[in-house]
């Protein structure tokens, strides 16, 4: 009997071939734009704007990775802005979400279910739907064209999934721990700070990572609408600096894109184990 | 004060910051959108109450076309995401060497700032020098360059494919997790009874995936319906409005033309559609879970 799990997963050669062919097709779709983008960054402009199309660069070089800093001198600032904005967004989201998730995970009170539902419903509006009143709100507070204009709406729309993920994680922490601390005379606040927080740290880390990535990836619409100053522009908007009046400097645009995403890629490489489990744990096991 | 009562107060204290934040940044703007939709708010100093005029204007314009287009666009995008996602997940779920690496390689479109992925697609769609047009000509599927983003019919599908590409990683990883939470003994029992791989997939995996499939389709539906960056960067809703969805049209009206009132009316319509999706979702899931209990 003990051989069954191994037997069941044994593939015949043609099954293996089929699976690898399927994976190859799937990953080709996912990765083709990155491969093409990288090759574009190696080609000189004259070769890019010539037909017929060639996939492989001829006398390719990393020249664009040097000239991109010359064409758009402020590029480093855009990367810094993206990092800065994402860091602040993540910090604020955690401050709001950690206590809220604990409350939702542990306490049942009148209306708690509805309140949780209301938080999740926020996800519905994370598009252009609220831009007009948000624009007016920002103008009233005088924060248009500042970092705040990008940070404030960013936080709101990252709260729902963060609450959901962390609540699920905290629900798995045995209730007996809280009760033991409580019986020993610890206050609610002490229990949260000294008992729950240390145990929940892995979950909080996952939420921090996903929030950071979410913020890094989705700064476009708020930055486009609420900020017109290049000194505060994040990467996605800053890349438009490579769109010249006549034509787009494609090789430098692609080089700059890769330079801009390198930090995020390094993070993923080291944290992918947490990412996959964190992403899916909150969602599947309800 | 009873223990019960102090607990409730503590719970509310914990929730207060998040509740306040969402009230100011989401709930208030939502109410404001609704109110604005009945006014002629614009850059002018004065704002007048105009009743249903904004809504009448919408229905006298081409907006009906925009609504239909949004639904068609969303329908195809979500369906293709689900099909590719389930396919990808079942491939990555196989116990073959290298699968850990394959899973990591699935993530980039989701992790990378959306704008960057969209730029890459924009260049691939380029008619004269782009990769797709180039390959189509090389292999004889096209005689002359195909400018995908310059013609309505191809631009429509080009934006869908880019949206699918950005959405697929999340769907795949989610469906993969759902597949892995299916008890292994079910497969073993079926295997003992002589059921083949395909039969097991059809009779065990697929039926047990349905709840996750519904959840993911719903989340994907809402995100896709709200999709802005992709169409905005690739086509700005063009050529001649053929990729203009409700969100893009709202943006053009409200932010582009500064007609806040008319834009707000469009936003209210979007909210109504989104609420209908949510209600439908709760209906379906509650029916599913009550079915489990019986």
Topology:
The complex is a heterodimer of chains A (286) and B (294).
Chain A: H1 4-8, H2 13-42, H3 45-48, H4 63-71, H5 75-106, H6 112-121, H7 131-141, H8 147-171, H9 175-183, H10 188-217, H11 220-226, H12 235-238, H13 250-284
Chain B: H1 3-36, H2 53-60, H3 63-92, H4 99-106, H5 108-111, H6 114-125, H7 131-138, H8 152-180, H9 184-192, H10 197-225, H11 229-234, H12 246-256, H13 260-293
- Spell out the helices and strands of chain B N to C: HHHHHHHHHHHHH
Q: Roughly how many Å apart are the termini of chain B?
A: 42 Å
Number of helices of chain A: 13
Largest sheet of chain A: none
From the alpha-carbon coordinates, what is the Rg of chain A to the nearest angstrom?
24 Å
**CATH topology-level fold name of the largest domain in chain A:** MetI-like fold
By DSSP, the count of extended strands of chain B is 0
CATH superfamily of chain B: MetI-like
- Mean of residue pLDDT of chain B? 85
Under CATH at level 1, the class of chain B stands as: Mainly Alpha
Domain count of chain A: 2
Q: Which shape of chain B, going by the Cα principal axes?
A: globular
SSE series of chain A: HHHHHHHHHHHHH
Overall strand count of chain A: 0
Task: Using the 3D structure, state the CATH architecture of chain B.
Answer: Orthogonal Bundle
How would you classify the quaternary structure?
heterodimer
Strand content of chain A: under 5%
> What would the average pLDDT of chain A be, to the nearest integer?
83
């Amino acid at each position: 009997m003990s051989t069954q799990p191994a037997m069941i997963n044994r593939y015949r050669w043609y099954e293996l071939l089929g699976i690898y062919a399927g994976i190859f097709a799937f990953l080709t779709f996912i990765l083709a734009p990155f491969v093409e983008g990288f090759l574009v960054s190696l080609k000189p402009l004259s070769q890019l704007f010539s037909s017929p199309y060639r996939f492989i660069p001829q006398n390719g070089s990393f020249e664009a990775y040097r000239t991109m800093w010359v064409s758009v001198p402020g590029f480093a600032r855009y990367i810094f802005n993206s990092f800065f904005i994402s860091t602040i967004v993540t910090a604020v989201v955690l401050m709001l979400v950690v206590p809220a998730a604990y409350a939702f995970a542990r306490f049942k009170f009148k209306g708690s279910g509805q309140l949780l539902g209301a938080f999740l419903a926020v996800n519905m509006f994370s598009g252009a739907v609220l831009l007009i009143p948000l624009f007016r709100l920002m103008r009233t507070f005088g924060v248009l064209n500042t970092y705040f204009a990008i940070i404030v709406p960013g936080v709101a729309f990252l709260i729902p999934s963060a609450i959901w993920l962390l609540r699920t994680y905290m629900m798995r922490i045995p209730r007996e721990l809280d009760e033991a601390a409580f019986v020993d005379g610890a206050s609610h606040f002490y229990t949260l700070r000294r008992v729950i927080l240390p145990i929940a740290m892995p979950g909080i880390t996952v939420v921090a990572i996903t929030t950071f990535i979410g913020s890094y990836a989705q700064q476009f619409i708020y930055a486009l609408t609420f900020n017109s100053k290049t000194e505060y522009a994040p990467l996605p908007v800053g890349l438009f600096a490579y769109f010249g009046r006549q034509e787009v400097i494609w090789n430098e645009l692609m080089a700059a894109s890769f330079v801009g995403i390198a930090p995020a890629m390094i993070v993923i490489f080291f944290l992918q184990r947490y990412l996959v489990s964190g992403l899916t744990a909150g969602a599947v096991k309800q | 004060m009873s223990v019960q009562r102090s607990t409730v107060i503590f719970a509310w204290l914990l929730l207060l910051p998040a509740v306040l934040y969402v009230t100011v940044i989401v709930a208030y703007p939502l109410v404001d959108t609704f109110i604005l939709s009945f006014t002629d708010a614009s850059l002018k100093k004065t704002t007048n109450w105009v009743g249903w005029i904004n809504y009448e204007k919408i229905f006298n314009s081409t907006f009906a076309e925009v609504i239909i287009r949004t639904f068609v666009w969303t329908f195809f995008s979500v369906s293709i995401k689900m099909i590719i996602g389930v396919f990808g997940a079942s491939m990555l779920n196989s116990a073959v060497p290298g699968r850990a690496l394959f899973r990591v390689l699935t993530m980039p479109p989701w992790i990378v700032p959306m704008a960057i992925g969209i730029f890459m697609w924009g260049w691939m769609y380029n008619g004269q020098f782009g990769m797709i047009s180039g390959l189509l000509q090389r292999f004889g599927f096209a005689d002359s360059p195909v400018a995908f983003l310059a013609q309505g019919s191809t631009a429509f599908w080009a934006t869908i494919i880019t949206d699918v590409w950005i959405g697929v990683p999340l769907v795949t990883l989610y469906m993969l997790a759902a597949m892995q939470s299916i008890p292994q003994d079910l497969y073993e029992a079926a295997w003992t009874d002589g059921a083949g791989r395909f039969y097991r997939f059809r009779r065990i995996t697929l039926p047990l995936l349905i709840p996750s499939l519904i959840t993911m389709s719903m989340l994907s539906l809402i995100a896709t319906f709200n999709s802005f960056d992709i169409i905005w960067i690739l086509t700005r809703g063009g050529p001649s409005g053929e990729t203009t969805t409700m969100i893009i049209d709202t943006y053009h009206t409200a932010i582009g033309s500064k007609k806040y009132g008319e834009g707000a009316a469009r936003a209210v319509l979007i909210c109504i559609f989104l609420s209908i999706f949510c209600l439908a979702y709760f209906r379906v899931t509650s029916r599913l879970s009550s079915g489990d209990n019986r």
